[in-house]
């Protein structure tokens, strides 16, 4: 059995290395970066196609005899069969609105938690900055989410049902709870600006307790808001998102904490920013650990996170996170250094979210990421079945 | 929640709450008798009023539809295969043994002149060819070419016609109406619903185009219609079957490659058919989507294939993403608790 699995691994590895250029060249309209190739994909082995024969999907098993003819130029065999190299699963139709929402939703949650940390430790500057940032970010989130709908005027149809099998439905209700709470909490910050008499004076007296209640509600729902988006992406057939379901919540939780901490580093004076610094360290640690796992432990399905645009974004995110944490810790006496670290952490969170988003998109557009892992799964099942039977 | 609601064998209509549900209905698509006429595609468009998908030459075989999209609820796949010969003087043993096979048609008729064309709305992922004939001319070697014209003699009549190792596979693909449908599980508006026949249908007056069902489908079936914004897919002609009629595609199929009926009966029929094919030496015949123990709990529309599923553009081992949803929520809960702990740590530090 070990011999069989060795051979299988070698087979895939070898064909993967040699087959990848052919696969990418053949993929029509692959990632949008290549001009369409002159030949349809690897779904069929066409004997006399102009570029030489494409050997592939018709004979996927090991040594394919008669596949190569010495007198013809030979495109290296692809590692899997497919229908003209066309994608099997459909890539999400979501635009960058959704990637941006991953960031703003996380920022809203992180800011709300920063405000909670500020309130708990008696640092009013953190509380105020966190609440205002949370309201801004959650408003942007609502815009991005509604703008991305195919029928934006029907956004309220989300409120027809509450469905635990749909992470989007769960998220809708989490946002519905978080948004107004965070809004009241932020608006209450403006109470001292109101006159002391009359109707507005009454509002001035009512707002602070309402705001405090809102802050509690927002802080309690914020962790759900920051992590449900990971389930939203994982609960799809997009290969690299689904494969990462164990770590994505931690990546997103860390990213949200780091971006919330960044708000504190940007807005609070140095002597009040202590909780923000500690939050930045915790968030960055979670984010870096999770992203590292996603990029290294998923086999072939980690590849989309290391290559192309997603790879560049995630590498940039990692560098910016490291720079931000270093700046936050080393520059704790400098207002400018703290603010720069905050900016770096915000940019890191943005890059990480877009990187994860793009990685999933890339994995859906190449049938390799659907077929090869599923074939390996079938092979493993067959082997364990054989072992059980004999 | 009843057992197996997310995964495993299940009768979906009672699980969805129907009491007294009629038998589960389905499609059995037997690709071994498909002739690629595309009557199913046309009948589907006619009955359901589905817009055109653009009139493109995709430059791949006779498939100019490209795939299942919001505007193509049936899709006939064409696969041209030079199969290695394993019998004495015959091509693929079994189904095609003894069948006349002329010179390979694949050579130059199928040259692709792919180039970016105009956007046609729902994009099956294949750029349209600009001018396949002109492109064919640029690479054609001297000598006669096969231009796709029918011959003037009966196939196989010419004594010198060499036998070639070549076969065509044709398959009419469609929504699988899964027992555990990823699209239905994740729909946040309730636009997708389970019918009393066990099929899965989108309510067009509810769908708000959130697009979540599209990546959820393990088969890549459901799709968003551009310019419309909503998600569309095969309804198994919900408006026909409720009246006891056959869905348009099955009604139009001239070879009964598409068979419609009670799923349990179709499964028996398919088992008989595959056994018969094996007996005739077509060892490669296999069923796809018939097994209720598979990753989606069995398909309401299943297939008899003559090659591996991925050759037809089907996933070899599809699993509904919701299978792992409880584990996902647990991980998210753990991450959320970690966040709360981080906030406590952040707030508890000493005051400087």
UniProtKB/TrEMBL annotation, chain A:
The keyword Isomerase does not apply. Residues 1-77 are annotated as: Disordered. Its main location: membrane. Residues 7-27 have a biased composition (Basic and acidic residues). InterPro entries: Electron_transfer_protein, NrfD-like. It is a multi-pass membrane protein. Keywords: Cell membrane, Membrane, Transmembrane, Transmembrane helix. It is found in: Cell membrane. It comes from the Bacteria. It holds the Pfam family NrfD. One of its GO terms (cellular component) is plasma membrane. Belongs to the NrfD family. This is Polysulfide reductase. It comes from Spirilliplanes yamanashiensis.
TrEMBL record, chain B:
InterPro entries: 4Fe4S_Fe-S-bd, 4Fe4S_Fe_S_CS, FDH_Electron_Transfer_Unit, Formate_DH_Fe-S_su. The chain crosses the membrane at residues 328-349. GO terms for molecular function: 4 iron, 4 sulfur cluster binding; metal ion binding. Residues 25-55, 166-197, 198-227 form the 4Fe-4S ferredoxin-type domain. [4Fe-4S] cluster 1 binds at residues 34, 37, 40, 253. Residues 84-103 are annotated as: Disordered. Signal peptide: none annotated. Residues 87-103 have a biased composition (Low complexity). [4Fe-4S] cluster 3 binds at residues 175, 178, 183, 217. [4Fe-4S] cluster 2 binds at residues 44, 234, 237, 249. Its main location: other. [4Fe-4S] cluster 4 binds at residues 187, 207, 210, 213. Its cofactor is [4Fe-4S] cluster. Keywords: 4Fe-4S, Iron, Iron-sulfur, Membrane, Metal-binding, Repeat, Transmembrane, Transmembrane helix. GO terms for biological process: cellular respiration; formate oxidation. It is found in: Cell envelope. Binds 4 [4Fe-4S] clusters per subunit. CDD domains: FDH-O_like. GO terms for cellular component: cell envelope. The keyword 4Fe-4S applies. This is Ferredoxin. It comes from Spirilliplanes yamanashiensis.
